[in-house]
Amino acid sequence: MTGTNAYPYPTQAVILAGGQGSRLRPYTDDRPKPMVEIPGTGTPIIGHQLAWLAAEGVTDAVVSCGHLAEVLQEWLVSADLPLRVTTVVEKEPLGRGGGLKFAAASLPHPDRPWYATNGDIWTRFSLREMAAFHHERDAAATLALARPRIPWGAVETDEFGHVLDFIESPPSPYLINAGVYVFSAAFTDMLPEHGDHERTTFPRLARERRLAGYPLPHGAYWRAIDTAKDLTEAARELARGGPA
Questions:
Q1: Which positions fall inside the Nucleotidyl transferase domain (predicted)?
Q2: What is the distance between the alpha carbons of residues 150 and 152, in angstroms, rounded to a whole number?
């Protein structure tokens, strides 16, 4: 990509790992959501995330903990990690935007761009390419966009109401926020102290044309682990060879 050779790709990241994961019970009765293991891997979701971030050039990660924080912290202390990890714990719920701002205060390089990801995302794609996309557009923030499959079968009809075909779990016609971000250094100050940045900061940046959306490359693996069914399907996809 033009002009990206000298671009300093981010080497720091925030992982939001404080959710209770109520839809994943009983798996989350004794551990936070990012500590749930993908069947067949022996590694929790956050372990896969840290390995991915390290492979993409990240050297420092800040993990924002909440629900059962001590379980996650104990695992991080005992694990053989591929990068430096710091944990922070919110004393009171700050919301997603406030949580990002709180965690970003512990990044080692506040004057440099940074990645962020939700703690329940299992994905593989080039963060460096996303960062170059972000840089070329001079965006304050860039969010990855996924096109998930609809969990129901779809029915195709013609203009006369005749059923033409049945399509099992077709791709959604809409792109969604994939829960992975690239932020400029200045973005940290734009985040709210409390509340949700997706209802405050993001809409304002969109109006100012300073928010970019990066569609995940064709064939990139992406899955949000929200339910027991997601765990089962992730294990099935792993058995078929993905993600790398």
A1: 13-239
A2: 6
